[in-house]
């Protein structure tokens, strides 16, 4: 026990020292020549590991962008300042998964605990971005009675439009899609803002509502005992929470299922993230209920679903197909050694490191033999690129799928496949992820040598098993219906309404 106590103490001291070093390094200035070395390093690693680097941008143009970037670096910069220079170039590659990690301040356990006991300045609202404007569309705690539909004009006297123009250059969708950015930007806006401005205890916002300007001072309030009790209750993992993949931070479920009418003829599945956690059990139980109810219609909602597990979408598709299918094409990598670049020991505690060290030989051999060469290219062995049999309880009725610009990555893979196979009617707006696939799968977490900025690079070219559109855009719905900000505020759902209307018409024709 004495030895364990010493190890624990050393681990705590090491962690504190690491946080201090990180924050000091984040505040330090780095010489121009060193920053230029980081630019070259980032481009070299992309060329070595990214399997489709010039998909949306010619090599000559990308070369020019990196060369031009270096010409602009004439002064010493902090890592954060450097990030705002280099990330727009990375975003210009137009690969939505490809992004440097913003160099944020790290917090000690004590600081984290204090933050957990307070309410956020901005996280109590839901937002909507249109053009260069930001609106509050939900005020969950009625903070100062700010009305949904209120535009935020400025934060601490800086126009919000300036932030939006700046932050928009930091993110991209796959290809030339335009629907993704408003969804992703509203979710990341305050990540960028707090990285720049810190976690303040108050903020002054100027607003506009119904032609009237008002100024509010938002304050970081302490949570009440009731709030803390609710937080504690939300963290408890019941069987229902596990099955539906409960997310305590948002007090919501990643997966949910219900029948939309009394006769159970219309089933509805909402998936907010393909997280894989307990997904096999969820779909097994859900489709058994649908089959027992003899439902004629199924609506799958993947709006605002940024993607996730290939295993989960392959499994889900097996409940929708009536014949064997292959979800994706073979996944290309740049070399046979690529799978060994995945930072096996990343984010390991001392105990994790010990266990992983013992398992590393098995991991090494599994990864070393995970590739094969065909037609001069190297591919990674994946279960999803092999024929999959449909489940016995596979749904045989009519399928509708709800999509929007927030449907990204795995959401786009499965919807592109469903559309190509004519297995579903897609309703909504063009997906944020590309119709013809993306580069992700698993990552090599590089670190720029001088600025120490983390740079995860996707290693797999993942493409649905379809005839490619070569559109360089997202999955286009069969029926385009765009949801307005007022629809969201009024809790109207025109996309779902269209589907239910179509189902009602079909039922009426059949005399149901």
UniProtKB/TrEMBL annotation:
InterPro entries in the cross-refs: ClpP/crotonase-like_dom_sf, Tail-specific_protease
Pfam families attached here? Peptidase_S41
Species of provenance: Chryseobacterium pennipullorum
Recorded hits in SMART domains, A to Z, give: TSPc (SM00245)
Per the UniProt entry, what are the Gene Ontology biological process annotations, in alphabetical order?
A: proteolysis
- Record domain Tail specific protease: where: 236-482
For this entry, the protein name equals Peptidase S41
Q: Name one GO molecular function term.
A: serine-type peptidase activity
């Amino acid at each position: 026990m004495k030895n364990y106590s010493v190890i624990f103490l050393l681990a705590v001291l090491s962690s504190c020292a690491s946080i201090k070093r990180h924050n000091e390094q984040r505040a330090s200035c780095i010489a121009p020549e060193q920053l230029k070395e980081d630019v070259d390093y980032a481009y070299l690693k992309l060329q070595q590991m990214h399997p489709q680097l010039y998909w949306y941008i010619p090599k000559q143009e990308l070369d020019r962008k990196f060369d031009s970037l270096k010409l602009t670096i004439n002064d010493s910069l902090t890592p954060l300042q450097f990030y705002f220079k280099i990330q727009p170039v990375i975003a210009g590659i137009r690969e939505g998964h490809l992004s440097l990690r913003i160099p944020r301040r790290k917090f000690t356990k004590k600081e984290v605990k204090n933050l957990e006991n307070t309410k956020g300045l901005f996280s109590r609202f839901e937002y909507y971005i249109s053009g260069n404007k930001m609106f509050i569309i939900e005020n969950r705690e009625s903070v100062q009675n700010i009305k949904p539909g209120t535009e935020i004009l400025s934060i601490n006297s800086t126009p919000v439009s300036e932030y939006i123009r700046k932050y928009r250059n930091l993110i991209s969708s796959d290809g030339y899609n335009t629907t993704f950015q408003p969804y992703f930007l509203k979710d990341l806006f305050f990540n960028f803002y707090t990285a720049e401005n810190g976690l303040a205890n108050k903020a002054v916002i100027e607003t506009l509502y119904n032609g009237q300007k008002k100024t509010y001072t938002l304050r970081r309030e302490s949570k009440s005992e009731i709030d803390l009790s609710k937080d504690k209750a939300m963290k408890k993992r019941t069987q229902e929470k596990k099955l539906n993949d409960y997310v305590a931070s948002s007090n919501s479920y990643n997966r949910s299922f219900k029948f939309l009418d009394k006769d159970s003829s219309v089933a509805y599945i909402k998936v907010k993230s393909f997280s894989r956690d307990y997904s096999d059990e969820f779909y097994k139980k859900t489709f058994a209920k649908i089959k027992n109810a003899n439902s004629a219609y199924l609506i799958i909602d993947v709006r605002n679903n940024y993607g996730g597990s290939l295993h989960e979408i392959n499994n889900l598709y097996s409940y929708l197909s009536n014949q064997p299918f292959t979800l994706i094409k073979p996944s290309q990598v740049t070399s046979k050694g690529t799978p060994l670049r995945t930072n096996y020991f990343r984010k390991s505690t001392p105990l994790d490191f010990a266990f992983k060290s013992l398992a590393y030989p098995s991991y090494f051999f599994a990864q070393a033999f995970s590739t094969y060469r065909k037609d001069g290219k190297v591919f990674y062995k994946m279960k999803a690129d092999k024929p999959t049999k449909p489940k016995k309880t596979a749904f045989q009725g009519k399928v509708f799928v709800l999509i929007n610009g927030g449907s990204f990555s795995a959401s786009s893979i499965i919807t592109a496949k469903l559309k190509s196979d004519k297995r579903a009617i897609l309703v909504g707006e063009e997906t944020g992820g590309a119709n013809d696939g993306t580069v992700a799968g698993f990552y090599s977490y590089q670190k720029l040598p001088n600025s120490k900025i983390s740079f995860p690079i996707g290693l797999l070219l993942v493409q649905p098993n379809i005839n490619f559109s070569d559109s360089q855009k997202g999955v286009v719905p069969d029926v385009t219906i765009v949801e307005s900000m007022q629809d969201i505020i009024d809790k109207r759902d025109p996309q779902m309404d269209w589907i239910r209307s179509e189902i009602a018409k079909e039922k009426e024709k059949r005399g149901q």
